Amino acid sequence: MSTAQPAVTPKVTAPPSTVGDRARKAKKALTSPWASTLAIVIAILWTVPTFGLLVTSFRPELDIRRSGWWTVFGDAFAGEGVFSMRNYETALFGSSTNLIDYFVNSFVITLPAVFIPITIALLAAYAFAWIDFKGRDFLFVMVFALQIVPIQITLIPLLSAYVDTGINGTFWPIWLSHSMFALPLAIFLLHNFMKDVPSSLVEAARVDGAGHVQIFFKVMMPLLTPAIAAFGIFQFLWVWNDLLVGLVMGSTSTSPLTVRIAEMAGSRGGDWHVLSAGAFISIIVPLIVFLALQRFFVRGMLAGSVKG
Q: What is the DSSP string of 180-226?
């Protein structure tokens, strides 16, 4: 008695795609010793000024005037190197600088200027992505086109509107200005991330009786965490390092740290020991934020770039 053997289908190996070939070539080029060496050199050149600023901020005034920051290594071997926190104490709490108040102002400005546009952009992006209404595509194009409007040409009209409404001299003009100019990019980015969410998830939620509010909070929000974090980092860095809006829209009591450091550079340009400490105080917070949220930033930048 013979048993019929099942037919064996030969395994067909698909030829490598053109996209796959390009990806492998790009990976090989980027991982070559020359590319790695170039990346290291660029990183060193990019870091040297910041490292020099950090070293200078800890040196006494006389040492700063006498020699450059790079001589600190020779002084350390000779037992002559001296470091102290005096420059930071003078910058933060000195009667002529008092950066601590402006440091607090920067936090008061930056946090609402990050949360306000993200909150509004999430709602608008969901509406553009998953709610069908008349004129949706036209409105989305108009919102996207607002990115080409430079903030410089709107400062005087905005300031006039703030004066007419009586909110000038408060934090509201700065919050509103940063939020308005962040919204077009925020809506565009979050809309694109929401459109990458499989429609089957949304349809399944609708079949289970979920409305737009439940879909937004229970389906979209958990998936959008990397995108929100990525834009939040961008917005935090932009607002914290901004000088123009804080200078034009702010007042003496609402000016951010960047405005005060710019004034120090003009009126106290000779006091390098104080100016270097103030500059490093200004950059330390964005540096900590970026390093702490770097993994969310990378995930947000890569989300939606590859579709499975």
A: HHHHHHHHHHHHHHHHTS-HHHHHHHHHTT--HHHIIIIIIHHHTHH
Q: What H or E segment, with its residue span, contains residue 235?
A: helix 225-240
Does the residue 242 lie in any domain? yes
Shared-domain flag, residues 57 and 115:
no
pLDDT in tens, 213-245: 888 888 888 888 888 888 888 899 899 999 899
Domain that holds residue 260: 97-302
Distance CA 241, CA 274 (A): 19
Tokens of 297: 């930033």
Same domain? 55 vs 128: no
Coil, strand or helix at 68 = coil
Where are the alpha helices (H) located in 86-135, listed in sequence order? 86-93, 99-130
20-24, 84-88, 185-189, 277-281: least confident range: 20-24
Residue where a domain terminates, one of 63, 84, 105: 84
pTM for the complete prediction? 0.76
Number of domains in the chain: 2
Residue 26 half-sphere exposure, CB side, CA atoms within 13 Å? 6
- With both helix axes pointing from N to C terminus, report the angle between 272-292 and 33-57 in degrees, rounded to the nearest 10: 130
Q: Do 57 and 105 belong together in one domain? A: no
Those residues with Cβ within 8 angstroms of residue 106's Cβ, 6 or more apart along the chain or in another chain: 240, 256, 257, 258, 285
Buried b (16+ CB within 10 A) or exposed e, 15-48: eeeeeeeeeeeeeeeeeeeeeeeeeeeeeeeeee
**What is the Cα–Cα distance from 227 to 194, expressed in whole angstroms?**
10
Measure CA 294 to chain center: 10
